Amino acid sequence: MSRPACPLYLGSEEVEKHFPSASLLIPPLETALANFSSGPEGGVVQPLRTVVPVEKYNGFLGVMPAYSAVDDALTTKLVTFYENMKDTSVPSHQATVFLFDPRNGTLKAVIDGTVITAKRTAAVSAIATKFLKPAVADVLCILGAGVQAHSHYEIFTELFSFKEVKIWNRSREKAETFAQSVKGPAQVCSSAQEAVTGADVIITVTMATTPILFGSWVKSGAHINAVGASRPDWRELDDDVMRNSVLYVDSREAALTESGDVILSGAEIFAELGEVVKGTKPALSEKTTVFKSLGMAIEDTVAAKLVFDSWSSSN
Ligand SMILES: NC(=O)C1=CN([C@@H]2O[C@H](COP(=O)(O)OP(=O)(O)OC[C@H]3O[C@@H](n4cnc5c(N)ncnc54)[C@H](O)[C@@H]3O)[C@@H](O)[C@H]2O)C=CC1
Ligand SMILES: O=C([O-])C1=[NH+]CCC1
């Protein structure tokens, strides 16, 4: 019996190089979301992620395995995320994706997961927005100015034609740096309320643990991508916005286990995004809508496969 070859290692620069434009992730992600929401016949096996709190340091380790029969891809992502980090030399979220040969369990590649997490999360928000944004969507608002704010800005300005992008961050300095670094317009706002007022599409990408977005500020018919607050006792959105919007989620099971915004508000889930993609649930884009994103392992599986296949075809 021969020993399996050493797994390939693809670091973040390599991933960036082999990562086609984030918008190319959209078709495989739509298929994955639809398959996930089809139950066993969709061929997606994705248990609820395990999250290990590291209380002493306000950190968490998430373990996110998934298999996609359609893609014949088997991965697990390990992701750490830390609140109020004193050490600013490393990102608050760091991840690695392990890609296995599903035929025999051999580890084929160890792939930087930080870039994958940033790009796939933004691409999924873009899918939700494509279905749920109002017919006229001129103003985009981003609350937060970190890694996800950047990846969301990039794909949202590539795919949609907003006339204005308003940004707010807890520290204004970071919002200013964000506005200077992006390739396009971004208007820095002095308060979250100022940024949200008049926005047609709102993205919340902060590490907040109490609400930063209030229903009374939100324009009727707006679409909100709620990306942060991934713990059962964390919030980004207040009860008003949660209870008075049509609520879409990536995974019902995850939302009812992990999302403080869903659990603590008692808001009723209308549909999974995958059900909208499949056409079994409507996209009520004329209403105020919230897409509560928690992040799914299957998104990492299809993104890692894309990177690996691209690397394989060029080597
Ligand atoms: N749904 C999903 O698939 C994923 C969600 N996330 C979540 O998205 C959010 C943003 O992630 P990253 O951009 O990677 O983080 P980051 O650390 O790069 O940026 C976080 C931003 O939030 C701001 N912030 C920190 N504490 C705050 C507070 N208490 N109130 C208001 N703003 C605060 C910071 O100034 C910073 O601009 C996090 O909550 C993260 O857990 C991250 C990855 C995937
Ligand atoms: O899907 C993901 O990787 C994460 N969701 C919240 C923190 C990390």
What amount of the residues lies in strands?
A: 15-25%
Radius of gyration from the CA trace?
A: 19 Å
Work out the oligomeric state of the chains in this entry: single chain
- Helix tally equals 11
Widest sheet, order of strands: 10-9-8-11-12-15-13-14
Task: Kindly state the number of beta strands.
Answer: 15
Shape: globular
Largest sheet: 8 strands, parallel
Low-pLDDT residue spans: none
- Percent helix, as a range, is 25-40%
**What is the structural class?**
alpha/beta
Could you describe the 3D structure shown?
It is a single chain. With 315 residues, this protein is α/β, with parallel strands linked by helices. The chain is built from eleven helices and 15 strands. The chain has an eight-stranded parallel sheet. Strands 1, 2, 3, 4, 5, 6 and 7 form a seven-stranded mixed sheet that branches. 1,4-dihydronicotinamide adenine dinucleotide binds at residues 81, 92-93, 117, 121, 144-149, 169-171, 174, 205-208, 212, 227-228, 230, 293-295.
Task: Quickly list its features.
8-stranded parallel β-sheet, alpha/beta, transcription corepressor activity, 7-stranded mixed β-sheet, globular, 315 residues, binds 3,4-dihydro-2H-pyrrolium-5-carboxylate, binds 1,4-dihydronicotinamide adenine dinucleotide
Structure described in brief:
The protein is of the alpha/beta class and 315 residues long. It is built from eleven helices and 15 strands. Its EC number is 1.5.1.1, 1.5.1.25.
